[in-house]
Write a structure and sequence with these properties.
Largest sheet: 6 strands, antiparallel, barrel
Helix content: 25-40%
Shape: globular
CATH topology: Pnp Oxidase, Chain A
Radius of gyration: 18 Å
Strand order of the largest sheet: 1-2-3-6-5-4
Number of helices: 6
Number of domains: 1
Distance between the termini: 68 Å
Strand content: 15-25%
CATH class: Mainly Beta
Structural class: alpha+beta
């Protein structure tokens, strides 16, 4: 099967399993938890899945594209990503973005025609070329992207009922308020 080919790690497509890369990719989640998610919500979304071992809600921040009322997300590191492994075990998800919260089922998307239709949106991503190259796909050629849709780990979220995981809460809302208060204290004294 074509999607079993190994991914080439290069540039930003080196798996962030520790160190500064891990912090870099986790930092936007902290901003979302501080209540700043709507500022990022038209480019990024929070995908919540159930953990395959614990059954607990697990959150990850992803780029998303909307097409015909359906959300599409991509897995930069394919099946190596923990969220992909969780999703493959239980495809029921919750997605929070700038357009609202959607609950549904995530399905692996390998349709070349859909990839061709999404291409104008996908190529706007600053990591699109590196992502495609890491899977051996020419990201500048929509026909190559369509022909190799099975190599690119993308999912479509089909809205629908189900026992979806709870949406991530802005539980760190007090951090920006505290910083603002600390900045105002010298002016109040």
């Amino acid at each position: 099967m074509s999607d079993e080919a190994p991914q080439t790690e290069q540039g930003l497509m080196v798996y962030p399993d520790h160190g500064w890369r891990w912090l870099f990719f986790r930092a936007p989640m902290w901003l979302w938890r501080m209540g700043l998610g709507p500022l990022m919500g038209f480019r990024f979304c929070v995908l919540t899945v159930y953990g395959r071992k614990t059954g607990l809600p697990r959150h990850t921040l992803l780029e998303w594209v909307e097409d015909g009322g359906r959300l599409h997300v991509g897995a930069g590191w394919g099946p190596r990503s923990q969220w992909v492994r969780n999703l493959l075990a239980n495809p029921i998800v919750t997605v929070q973005s700038g357009i609202g919260t959607v609950r549904g089922r995530a399905l692996r998307m390998t349709d070349g025609d859909v990839m061709r239709r999404l291409y104008p949106h996908l190529k706007k991503s600053p990591v699109w070329a590196q992502y495609c190259a890491s899977w051996g796909v020419d990201g500048s050629d929509p026909e190559d992207v369509a022909a190799n849709a099975g190599k690119l780990w993308t999912f479509v979220i089909e809205p629908g009922p189900g026992d979806a995981p709870p949406a991530m809460q802005a539980d760190l809302w007090w951090v920006p308020a505290g910083i603002a208060l600390l900045l105002l204290v010298p002016f109040l004294l």
